[in-house]
Amino acid sequence: MNRAHKITLAVIAIVLCACVAAYSAVVYLKQFTFDEEKALAKWSKMIMKGQVDYTLLKQGKEGYVQALSDKACSALYYRIGFKLSEYPVLTWQWRVLKFPDLSNAKTDLEKDDFAARVYVIFPFLSFSSSKFIEYVWAEDIPVGTVMDSPAGNNVKKIVVRSGKLPGNEWATEKRNMYEDYEKVFGKKPGMNAGAIAIMCDAEGSKSVAESTFDDIAIEKVN
Q1: How far apart are CA 15 and CA 126, in angstroms?
Q2: What is the pLDDT of residues 176-214, one digit of tens each?
Q3: Is 95 helix (H, G, I), strand (E, B) or coil?
Q4: What domains appear along the chain, each with residue ranges and CATH number?
């Protein structure tokens, strides 16, 4: 093989690699890196009982949200409308620093506390006609468990992480919301998503919970 032929093949290889990279590049509807000082400005509070302390913290140039619940239940949500068929993938990073103490919890409502939840919300005319998918980090419930919420069977919980990681490490999640919707509701999505939310909750157990959230993104399938 002569030098000119080698150079030609090298150029073709570079072009093909560039095409593959372009084709496989992630297409985002929205990314939340929390690196900017006003990163939470467009997020709204949803207060159920007491206020969870959501604080924007920085580690070098990178930011993240710290959530601390002291017997409180409230969420941060971001309004964004999209079709799951067009943008079905949700990714995020999170970390549990302290699980709520459920040792004295007796009722389903008292036990329905999680240090970290990520919601996909499908709003309609009322709460009961709306639908919610909760991705939760549990302390001892097996990963993959699907549960109805005490709030109603229109709210489905999926355990995507269980137990504490060594050294309070960050965990990265990637979920196909379209597939999860079909799994938990038994049918294809009939409505668009209207918001996403994060929450730390220790109100039912009257205890304390702490978690952090970062790099939330809504994506196309790549």
Answers
A1: 53
A2: 999 999 999 999 998 999 999 999 999 999 999 999 999
A3: strand
A4: 28-219 (2.60.120)
Q: Which of 196, 182, 177 shows the shortest CA–CA distance to 44? A: 196
In the sheet that holds 44-49, the strands lie side by side as 44-49, 73-82, 193-201, 116-122, 131-138, 152-162, 146-149
pTM recorded for the entire structure: 0.86
Token pair in block for residue 216:
């939330």
Burial of 198 (0-12, 13-18, 19+ CB in 10 A): buried
Tens-place pLDDT, residues 103-150:
988 999 999 999 999 999 999 989 888 999 999 999 999 999 999 999
Q: How far apart are CA 55 and CA 76, in angstroms?
A: 11
Q: Are 111 and 204 in contact, with CB atoms under 8 Å apart? A: yes
Backbone angles phi, psi at 216, to 5 degrees: -85, 135
Distance between CA atoms of 219 and 176, rounded to whole angstroms? 10
